[in-house]
């Protein structure tokens, strides 16, 4: 009685060994490192960068501890901060502004462990320090923008196909096109349906009016919203890159929220400034009708037009009347560089994608002699950057914006356009800054409280249950090992509530052992032989352990599903802890007891 | 060694009226404080800006309060955080002003009089997030209860499920009552703590219930009345109850003592939760079970009932 087959012992030994391997990385320190990533969406960092960085470092006589490519960046590890800083200057100088070289800390985990995917736990911001933002995407604006764009597409297509149309208007959730008669309606429907395959295009013909109604099906709206969030995340990635932060976190949370965490950053104002810039470029036609302009200045802006101000080279702000229709947006821009024009004035050179190039070509061809305005829309307010007269057709997608701007401004504008536009504006709904010293303090306090609690329980258990207590303590230790290993392996971000959950889980995990030990004592009291007492003790306690742990697990899972932030961090650890504690309290401790007492004559149990 | 081994069954159920009266009284008191004083919701729920400051030498709260009031940002709260050098500042949300500006302005104002101040943490949370958290928290609470009821009803019987959840809510309301009475800050970690208590306390009830179920099936206890069977179950598990609670409480007290300000609320919620958890699982859940009219028949399969005919 009370013998485990060999394979069970082997399984337990193997699980402990594996757990140990995956826990070890947490105990290695960190060494200074550099993270090389791309500053521009058009340039990608690849494997080749490792060799390039090594060559640069060799030239200045620095040998890195380790350098490797990971995800989208190259990481280079150094012995000390002096070499790190020296290397940073050298690499940044050699690579230029297209790359960002950020200071970083990387775990000293040996390479062979890293190859096994054994990594230290990811620490949450409350343990490392840094800034945290929760941004909310304005979904209504995203939908409005898409409708606006659809209206533009329709207009262009109808013009292209030479179908005469009346007003193209964007209503609340649809685009309406007014047409003259049945025939044009049919033709328009055919043309529009071809380019807007995913949308619902309906003919409405009643009381002598012919209308084409274009609506977004529910699935399309959902896709639109998802795309908006995704595009914003990409844009945020680009913008965060400008900050040169090592290992930023940018994730979607819920339907329309984005979490941005920048470890190590303390300057919120700068971070926010860069994140919050919602600059997009719009190209619109200028209405150069003096009568309309005068009327607009007098506060009577005609329908379909908008009054803005144009900044001239001499610093004056001149009112300018623009058509509301957006011909081209920043979405069609794939490159923006600051430079100089042929008159040696600061300028921004834009590169358009194929759609953008085609649109621009038609626009310039049809509007020779008229003015087009480049508008930079920031935080919902537009400013006309420049409004040049179209001299002739511009093909090829190379556009230059010049005029009233300085070098710094040209640089700024280019940077904003390059970083990409947001699909919809965002608001900061939550913001946290945690000082680095506070993070360190949180770790040590959390660690200490767990340690002291563990020691207190261990001493009591060993004292109270003797051999069984020692076994329980070892099982509890194994539980801690399993828990840490799983947390590291699964890449769960450890936060302060997570540490609290480790402590609580350990406190609760001992319950299973107490149940078992008490049961064994009871069996002995009822006159069972030692071997039978062990067997019955474990067997009877198991049903109780299962029931009580499953109910706790239900609570944990509900927290995991409905909690956010601190609660989720807590729930992850709690749930994993319940599972590991069942394994260690039932199997690991039983294996030890079997090794001690099984397979031999025992007269008394030390319990 | 055995500290808590009791030889004869303690007649817990005969104290049923007394214990029910006590828990009813504490419950009513807790509800009263909740209604009368309300919870002191943390920033996660109310929205606003919180700054944590550390001074090199002891801070003068009155002076700080005065300086912050002079900036006219509305009602600001200034309180110390455990030590004389750590200060927490809470400001309401202000339209047209983001918290970076806000915290910078406050910090500059404070630095004018005392240069030894260091900003440790700034939190800004919009009011909309708080509302969402509140509903999510509530949903989680309801879901946990439903899940527990469903599982216990399946594994035991509906009477057990309902008793456990009532005992559970009793603990939760009392913790909330304590937070209302002492006006401790009710923040997200406290909520996590309370939800953890929910799991913890039901764990307790389940251990006792398990024993009751087992006792009902034990031939040796067939002649005993239902209260006697329950008394026996509680007595048999009392040693384990005390030790388990002791060890968990050890952990939680360790958190309360060494965990610092950040874990204080969490540890506090759990400390109270554990104390009442032990009480409620023994002295609330079990009498409720009796009140709901649990009988031996409820726990034994119908086939056996036929054989026994009359108990």
TrEMBL record, chain A:
Location in or out of the cell: Cell membrane
Family: Belongs to the SecD/SecF family. SecD subfamily.
Keyword Membrane: yes
SecDF P1 head subdomain domain boundaries: 314-424
Main location: membrane
Keywords, ordered alphabetically: Cell inner membrane, Cell membrane, Membrane, Protein transport, Translocation, Transmembrane, Transmembrane helix, Transport
SUBUNIT field: Forms a complex with SecF. Part of the essential Sec protein translocation apparatus which comprises SecA, SecYEG and auxiliary proteins SecDF-YajC and YidC.
Domain of life from the UniProt record: Bacteria
Keyword Iron: no
NCBIfam families in the cross-refs: 2A0604s01, secD
Protein name per UniProt: Protein translocase subunit SecD
The Protein translocase subunit SecDF P1 domain, residue ranges: 231-287
Originating gene: secD
Annotated signal peptide: none
Domain SecD export protein N-terminal TM: start-end pairs: 1-103
TM spans (from-to): 450-467, 474-492, 541-563, 569-593
Role: Part of the Sec protein translocase complex. Interacts with the SecYEG preprotein conducting channel. SecDF uses the proton motive force (PMF) to complete protein translocation after the ATP-dependent function of SecA.
Domain Protein export membrane protein SecD/SecF C-terminal, residue spans: 426-595
Automatic annotation (TrEMBL), chain B:
Subcellular location: Cell membrane
Keyword Transmembrane helix: yes
Any one annotated GO CC term: plasma membrane
Keywords: Cell membrane, Membrane, Protein transport, Translocation, Transmembrane, Transmembrane helix, Transport
Transmembrane segments: 21-43, 133-153, 160-182, 188-209, 250-270, 276-294
Domain Protein export membrane protein SecD/SecF C-terminal per the UniProt entry, residue ranges: 108-292
SUPFAM superfamilies: Multidrug efflux transporter AcrB transmembrane domain
Keyword match Transmembrane helix: yes
InterPro entries for this protein: SecD/SecF_arch_bac, SecD/SecF_bac, SecD/SecF_CS, SecD_SecF_C, SecD_SecF_C_bact, SecF_bac
GO terms for biological process, alphabetical: intracellular protein transmembrane transport; protein targeting; protein transport by the Sec complex
Gene Ontology molecular-function annotations: protein-transporting ATPase activity
Subunit structure: Forms a complex with SecD. Part of the essential Sec protein translocation apparatus which comprises SecA, SecYEG and auxiliary proteins SecDF-YajC and YidC.
Family: Belongs to the SecD/SecF family. SecF subfamily.
NCBIfam families referenced in this protein's UniProt entry, alphabetically: 2A0604s01 (TIGR00916), transloc_SecF (TIGR00966)
HAMAP family: SecF_B
Protein function: Part of the Sec protein translocase complex. Interacts with the SecYEG preprotein conducting channel. SecDF uses the proton motive force (PMF) to complete protein translocation after the ATP-dependent function of SecA.
Protein name: Protein-export membrane protein SecF
Species name: Deefgea piscis
